[in-house]
């Protein structure tokens, strides 16, 4: 790009996993290019972008105001912006063909406070930090219901209605599953203000036709009468895979690995 100090602006485009696209610019008029309309907004800014050659991870932070750019706290809590694709352009607003893509990556950890948010921007080389290959451990490495697990999670799911809420503890109209059946499982909100939010279940007690669930975190916006989907939990142990799900052929752990005591053991001179 030429020296465009007086006509240079920045354009942002966020693409969520559900397909929704948010596009805005710090220019004072709407700009359109690359199949998107960038609306004027000062809701998002970025700190200095750290970019390096080689395979080092490019990163920065995006800071902005909630709702001003269509970003709401409810959507963030529901995880709708988790790993959203991000593109940042430097654009000559007097000649839109004169533009440069300065960053492409994903949103990382998002913090919320006082009607604003701060999100980590992760470059494309962040993907290289992901572990590849098998991890040798006693517990199963698969996620319940994924391709390596091979189980159909929907078979072990039930839709219930919330009848009581006390912080991270909720009570639902229980199914017929035994106690602790949904411990280590997931809860997805199906309707209401919290629709779409997914949380993990820490504990599950069933008694007198009701089921009491302890969640790892409270669900903001959840109300009595909302429908939720419960998916059975798996604690990754071989016994659970065999007895609860009958899926031992697909168990992705190594239950017979020797313990650390066995590995560090040595012969004793006094043994007979």
TrEMBL record:
One Pfam match: Phage_phiJL001_Gp84_N
Bacteriophage phiJL001 Gp84 C-terminal domain ranges (all copies): 181-261
Record-given protein name: Bacteriophage phiJL001 Gp84 C-terminal domain-containing protein
Provenance organism: Palleronia marisminoris
